[in-house]
Amino acid sequence: ANLNIIIFNMDAFQSVLRFVMNQKSTIGYSFMAILTIGGERIFSMVSFQCPCNRSQNFFYGLTFLLSPAFVLLVLGYFFSTRMWRLFTGCCLNPLKLCPRGNCLGCVKVFIRISVGACVAPVMWLSVALLNGTFYECAVSGLESNEVVNLFCKNKTYKCKMELPRVPCGKSNLPKEDNQELLLMLRAQSQILGWCIIICAATAGLIGICCNNCRSQVSYLQLTFWRRYIEKEKEQFEHYAEDYATKLANRNLKSFFENRDPEAFPFPDHTAWEEISKLYTFSTSEQYYSTLQRYVDRAERDHTDERKPVLAFEEEIEMS
């Protein structure tokens, strides 16, 4: 009975593990959304204090609204392996960016990189606008007559003067007027936030549909391709760590024992360059990565004269 329980628990654990691995992108985006919401709440409650001054409200609120989004965008580019595959060494070899003069292909790849990097900033802007705190402070400091008249329509001149103090609850307006203005500001912020969410979701859906419609591979082959890339990445990291350890041990042993090092097979510079290129899928070749293309090539000791095509149809690669 105990053995059956153990087997059942192992099967259940493997099922959960497979589900997590299959849904890791969704789980990752969900975790990112949770972090974004938590970060926005911390900013709102701990560090954000609207100055309630007409000359400072706009820039202060806009800084808290856009600065984190900009930082997240920079981090998105920084942690993009695809970006470093594209740009590493491009100053010494400009043809790497635009092989055969294909500048359009480079632009397409950079757009794909930018789309991935924009996920976190869009999440931040959406969450911040739905909360409304930063928007309320920023818009209440605008000096444009059109904006002021929009909020203070059919109200006294005192409303125009006290509008910057509304987000702090320190205005000299009647409580009902102050609450009405605050609700109006918050409603506009939330409408803008939902507009960003709807636009981002629509653009994402259209992009995925267009990409899948133009795909050169079937759904099942695409599924296999994704699984292969995941396994190749996993095994590459394992082999890289193992070989780095062996090479370090061999070099240290040779140094401390003061003798010639043992022969150690290792990829040359050309090989590293070949497998580091961005991969383009071709229906005429049964290759799923630059690594497979390299190891299956008949003459691996010679530099491949073909240039990598950057405008690949699928965004699958070892990253």
From TrEMBL:
The chain crosses the membrane at residues 27-46, 58-79, 191-208. One of its GO terms (cellular component) is plasma membrane. This is Calcium homeostasis modulator family member 5, tandem duplicate 2. It is found in: Membrane. It is a multi-pass membrane protein. InterPro entries: CALHM. It comes from the Eukaryota. Belongs to the CALHM family. Keywords: Ion channel, Ion transport, Membrane, Transmembrane, Transmembrane helix, Transport. Its main location: membrane. It comes from Lepisosteus oculatus. GO terms for biological process: ATP export. GO terms for molecular function: monoatomic cation channel activity. The lineage of its organism: Eukaryota, Metazoa, Chordata, Craniata, Vertebrata.
